Amino acid sequence: MTAAQLVGRIGRAALVGTGLFLLASGVAGAQAAAPANEFSEAGMKFLAAAIAIALGTLGPGIGIGLLGGKAMEALGRNPEAAGVVQTNMILAVAFAEALGIYALVVAILIGFVF
């Protein structure tokens, strides 16, 4: 799979996830909820939070996997550069993991604040 195909698949997954979130949060429908729908409204809120965390950690998970694989390739080709490669890899993993933490914060906000 080429990088362009991977980006295309991730883009489509993000688009579907955004649509599901808008549909679940009631923004897309914009209908007034009847009193009988209070239970399903709470359920949809937590479903939207679950979708947000699932899709929000997909990208960082793929990125961290690619970073680790490429770092191992670099160490295999040039073992003398282990310190520099490891330092840069840990820094890049921290930045990728920050995106997953942002998704967790959004999921918590959806679940408990909105």
Keywords:
82% helix, 114 residues, F1FO ATP Synthase, mainly alpha
Mean pLDDT: 79
Could you say what the CATH architecture is?
Up-down Bundle
| SS elements, strand count | 0
Protein structure class: mainly alpha
Q: What is the terminal separation in angstroms?
A: 39 Å
Q: Main β-sheet, in a few words?
A: none
Number of helical regions: 3
| Net shape | elongated
Short characterization:
The protein has 114 residues and is mostly helical.
Characterise this structure.
The protein is an all-alpha fold and 114 residues long. The chain has one domain: F1F0 ATP synthase subunit C (F1FO ATP Synthase, Up-down Bundle), CATH 1.20.20. The protein is built from three helices and no strands. It has helices at residues 3-25, 38-77, 82-112. Helix 1 (3-25) runs antiparallel to helix 2 (38-77) and helix 2 packs antiparallel against helix 3 (82-112). The protein is elongated. It starts with a helix and ends with a helix. The mean pLDDT is 79.
Blueprint of the fold:
Layout: H1 3-25, H2 38-77, H3 82-112
